Amino acid sequence: MNRGILAQSSTHTNAHSIDCEGHDVIATFGNVLEEYATLRETVGLCDFSTHGKFRISGPEHIDWLAKMVTRDLEFFDTEKTLFSLCLSEQGEVLGIVTLYKYQDAILVETETANRAGIAAWFAQHSSDGVVIEDVSDELALIGFEGPLAFKVAQTLIDFEISSIPFQAFVEIEKGGERVMLARIGYTGEYGYKVFAPVNVASSLWNELYEKVKAVKGGLCGNDALEIAMLEVRQPLQTRETRDLDVR
Fold first, then answer.
1. Which of 115, 161, 195, 222 has the CA that lies 20 to 30 A from 144?
2. Is the dihedral of CA 130, 136, 138, 140 positive or negative?
3. Which parts of the chain are beta strand (E)?
4. What is the pTM of this model?
5. pLDDT in tens, 125-160
6. What are the distances in angstroms from CA 146 to CA 50, 91, 214, 224?
7. 175-154-152 Cα angle (round to 5)
8. In sequence order, which ranges of 69-197 are alpha helices (DSSP H)?
9. Are 28 and 16 in contact (CB under 8 A)?
């Protein structure tokens, strides 16, 4: 089972995990009610490293990806993000994805449950002029969300955090590596994600954990996050389409 890039951290010792398509997803770090309160009152730190991450590049990558998702990418600007769906030819929801637009590539993030399916979908529709790289195990993905999340994000940059609009990202340097900080929220609170190469992931996680604790925040698993998402009617695709038959 894939336990994720950050699984060896001492912070994960008492975490309760569930098997999600062969990946070890953290349901809770201890008490789901406390984690929910943390999300709503301060800031919760989340390990999303088992999410799928695909780098799509090549001279035809934008036109190709526009056929794979349900959003128009013609005016998709660099350093912006957007949410979309991947659908089969029969209209089946293969997954909710988040796209991150670089100058020469687009990073596609999927939920853990859809990682293998979307990888297979992309491979099935591969085309000349497009390079599809599965970088899921090369990049850690750390999230932190809650009303005080912006205070944690501010410590990572040397300019005003409010200048990063919703669904945008910037690149910063950590340990000599390029790291992406994106402003993306699921729960109606401030929310951020950090994509970091494996060799700096653990130190960055520990750094963020200390900063989260400094504003009286804590660790947060998937169960508390889903409760908060349901409250603001954010779609939970793996739950809402579980028993649908699209034939």
1. 115
2. positive
3. 16-20, 23-28, 44-47, 52-57, 81-87, 93-101, 105-110, 131-134, 139-145, 168-174, 177-183, 191-197, 218-219
4. 0.94
5. 999 999 999 999 999 999 999 999 999 999 999 999
6. 21, 34, 14, 12
7. 85
8. 115-124, 149-154
9. yes
